[in-house]
Amino acid sequence: MNHWTDVCALDAIDDEDVLRFDHAGKTYAVYRVEDRVYATDGLCTHEKIHLADGLVMDHVIECPKHNGRFDIRDGRALGAPVCVNLRTWPARVHEGQVQIQLEAAGPHD
Ligand code: FES
């Protein structure tokens, strides 16, 4: 079963910014754009660089290493050098807290 996990207060992420969130041995990138929140895997699919060190422009995260870009709404890789999409996670604001919905650890995790 999936469950919502607290990340931080909404105020802890500036508009058009991204925060690194480490949880249960995995790393995520959590974004705030125009008071909506989004979450993706935290590492670039090109060379496993932390995307939270990158730049958010509208709904696009630009990787800090080779400037690969992903759409944070659906994880779509937007062109070379990135060609593998990012995994996305449901995100919401609940009582002022940013939350992401993660899969409960299964037998293969
Ligand atoms: S590591 Fe992200 S674009 Fe190369």
How many extended strands? 10
Low-confidence stretches: none
Distance between the termini: 14 Å
C-alpha-based Rg, rounded: 13 Å
Structural class, from helix and strand content?
A: mainly beta
- The whole-number mean of residue pLDDT values reads 94
Coarse shape: globular
Strand content: over 45%
Ligands, deduplicated? FE2/S2 (inorganic) cluster
Helix-strand pattern:
EEEEEEEEEE
Lateral arrangement of strands in the main beta sheet: 2-3-4-8
- Separate helix tally: 0
Helical percentage: under 10%
Biggest sheet character:
4 strands, antiparallel
Account of the protein in words:
This protein is an all-beta fold. It is 0% helix and 47% strand. The protein has no helices and ten strands. The chain has a four-stranded antiparallel beta sheet with strand order 2-3-4-8, with no helix packed on it. A hairpin with a 2-residue loop joins strand 9 and strand 10. The protein is globular and about 40 Å long. The chain starts with a strand and ends in a 6-residue tail after the last strand. The model has no long low-confidence stretch (mean pLDDT 94). The structure holds FE2/S2 (inorganic) cluster (FES). FE2/S2 (inorganic) cluster (FES) is lined by residues 44, 46-47, 49, 63, 65-66, 68, 81-82.
